Amino acid sequence: MEKRYGAVGRQDGLYKIGRNKWELIYGFGKDNEDDETGWNYRQRFSYKPGLDEIKSLINSQIDADIDEETLSGMIWNGKPVRIDDEFQTNILGVLAVLGMKGDALFPKTFKLGNYSDSTPAFHTFNTAMEFADFAEALMAHKEGAYQKGWAQKQAFEESGWLAFVEPSTDESNG
């Protein structure tokens, strides 16, 4: 689905916009809370899609959003954290030997991610406890992102908007 800007609220539904044109609109968000307008996800079709196709598209979009939130949405001690596979492997490696070595492993510096200006965000962990607290925050972030996704999927299923809003259109537009 494509993110389109200029929306002032949710417009969830499947809209007939021409003779052989349909547009699925789902969700609403803002990049910054202070913005007056935000965005919706949209997908155009040259046919009327079925309910299974619509559900699949929306669930795939929710999954993609949650993957992005999990990967790049964590801020820890004011620093952005990017939780990619390499980062997770490094964290797990330290956790694996943490019980045996404890504070003897530290200090240990990690690149957590990048700030919006692409400047790297580093943090030096000085104790095993500080690192364990970080790992716990990382797990809580991932769990929270997954729970958010599950809640969005459930809300979508229960919303009832899938009765398809079909405003009147001039058939000659198609």
Strand content: 25-35%
Element pattern in H and E: EEEEHEEHEEH
Q: Count the strands?
A: 8
The CA-CA distance between the termini, in Å, is 21 Å
Q: What is the helix content? A: 40-55%
Tertiary shape: elongated
How does the major sheet shape up?
4 strands, antiparallel
Strand order of the largest sheet: 1-4-3-2
Based on secondary structure, the structural category is alpha+beta
Q: For the CA atoms, what is the radius of gyration?
A: 22 Å
**Assembly classification:** single chain
How large is the count of helical segments? Answer: 3
The parts where pLDDT drops under 50 for at least 5 residues are: 164-174
- Overall mean confidence score, pLDDT: 90
Short description:
Helices cover 40% and strands 28% of the residues. It has 174 residues and is an alpha+beta fold. The protein starts with a strand and ends in a 16-residue tail after the last helix.
Explained architecture:
The chain is α+β, with helices and mostly antiparallel strands and 174 residues long. The protein is built from three helices and eight strands. The protein has helices at residues 51-72, 85-101, 128-158, and strands at residues 2-7, 13-18, 21-29, 38-45, 74-76, 79-81, 108-114, 120-125. The strands form three sheets. The protein has a four-stranded antiparallel beta sheet, with no helix packed on it. Helix 1 runs antiparallel to helix 3 (128-158). The longest helix has 31 residues, at 128-158. The radius of gyration is 22 Å and the shape is elongated. Residues 164-174 have low confidence and may be disordered.
